[in-house]
Write a structure and sequence with these properties.
95 residues, mainly alpha, two-stranded antiparallel ribbon, 3 helices, 2 strands
Length: 95
């Protein structure tokens, strides 16, 4: 796909990028190269290829989901100035 400098400048304007004529032609060449590579990749036959989330076939070791910390609710509530049941009462900050 070919881009002219007007199209590149329009894209640059939309992206809020300031470019001059020389930069516009360089960007045009780079975009054409990227789109050419994408076109090549779409032509590759991927029938029978399973999608993968990672290039390496590894599993993430996970730890047991168990409580490792003691319950500090009562201790925290005792430090508060005002509580109601198991809730902290705080001053109103939004009117």
């Amino acid at each position: 796909m070919k881009f002219n400098n007007d199209e590149i400048k329009k894209i640059a304007h939309l992206a809020r990028i300031n470019i001059n004529e020389l930069e516009a032609s360089q960007v045009s060449e780079k975009l054409e190269g990227i789109l050419g590579l994408i076109e090549q990749m779409t032509k590759v036959n991927t029938d029978g290829i399973e999608p993968m989330a990672h290039a390496l076939d590894i599993n993430q070791p996970l730890r047991q989901d168990k409580v490792t910390e003691a319950d500090i609710r009562k201790k925290s509530l005792d430090l508060s100035e005002e509580t109601d049941q198991s809730l902290f009462i705080v001053p109103r900050v939004i009117e």
